Amino acid sequence: MPADTNPYGGVFGGWLMSQMALAAGSLASRTGRGKAVVVSASDFAFPGAMAVGDELSVYCEIAATGTTSLTIAAEAIARERNGESQVKVAQGRFKFVLLDENDRPRAAAAPSKSFHPR
Fold first, then answer.
1. So where are the chain's domains?
2. Which of 18, 53, 70, 88 could serve as a FRET partner for 100 with CA atoms 20 to 30 Å apart?
3. Which fold has domain 2-98?
4. Contact 79, 54 (CB under 8 A)
5. Partners of residue 72 on adjacent β-strands
6. 87-116 pLDDT, tens per residue?
7. Tell me: the pLDDT tens digits for 38-77?
8. Cα 80 from Cα 68, distance rounded (Å)
9. Are the C-beta atoms of 72 and 65 separated by less than 8 Å?
């Protein structure tokens, strides 16, 4: 939406990051089978521009599993509103910590071999 643009009329990078965090969080919660909170974001790049009205798709995969954490790589692809042209507009990594019912870190199990996040 126009409220999500930068002063130059392009989609604000912070909005893209928030959409990517939502997608990565969904994968973290589903894989971790419970509450997962983002604790860091890194390695962000914005190789392309997204226009207002473009369709955004975010693809995520588990990059690493720690003792209580999951690192998820996310890639954002924009498709032009009235066509088929696509461009990668952002990529980055999010680290999530899995929490128990008392909001304390809990062990992260290795993902199932049959799990395909894309």
1. 2-98
2. 18
3. Thiol Ester Dehydrase; Chain A (3.10.129)
4. yes
5. 62, 94
6. 999 999 999 999 999 999 999 876 555 444
7. 999 999 999 998 988 899 999 999 999 999 999 999 999 9
8. 39
9. no
